[in-house]
Amino acid sequence: MSRSTWQGIAVGLISIAIPVGTGCAQPPAERLRAAQHSLDEAGAAGAPDYAKDDFVKLGQRLILAKDELVTQEEGFSIVRCYADAEKMPIAVVEFAGPVAGKAAQNKTAAKTAVQAMGQEAGRVVTSAKELIAKVPTGYEWAGLETIKQDRGVRDKFRCGSPAH
Fold it and tell me: In this predicted model, what pLDDT tens digit does every residue of 53-95 receive, in sequence order?
């Protein structure tokens, strides 16, 4: 091969290597920290309890981003490209806000439901106390028992009753 052919090949390889080496050489460590921080904030907002499925998806997205970073770091330095690894944490950060908002909304709804159930329980207890207060006690109870016994005796001797 001629010298100009080798120079052309070298220029071509350098023109490919420079963007690959410079444009994709830095791992997105700061973006991963921001994504982890967003996940932690969603957790603090109650997402594990009040938006569980979305919180799990959010965590899975962060794991995928970290896995992509590891995959790129395991490759040869000249072919490393962190483009996907940079996009993935951004998606985590963008998704974390709505997850935290949904958790806060669900937490408020749950709190309202618990308060309503507490009020209903209070009404049931009050009603039960009123009914208990109406139950005969002491002499009243003994009088009711006597009436019931008298009614039973009277029913036995009544004409046309099945006891005859």
Answer: 999 999 999 999 888 888 888 877 777 787 877 888 989 999 9
CB-based contact 89:62 (threshold 8 Å)? yes
Q: Give residue limits of the domains in the chain.
A: 3-157
Taking every pair of C-alpha atoms in the chain, what is the biggest distance, in angstroms?
Answer: 135
Whole-number Å distance between alpha carbons of 35 and 119: 41
Dist CA 55 CA 112 (whole Å): 22
Tokens read off for 64: 């995928």
Q: How many CB atoms lie within 10 A of CB 59?
A: 16
Q: What is the pTM of this model?
A: 0.57
Smallest CA-to-CA distance from 103 within 36, 153, 58 is with 58
Q: What's the token pair of residue 95?
A: 């998704």
Q: Are 116 and 57 in contact (CB under 8 A)?
A: no
Spacing of C-alpha 21 from chain mean position: 41
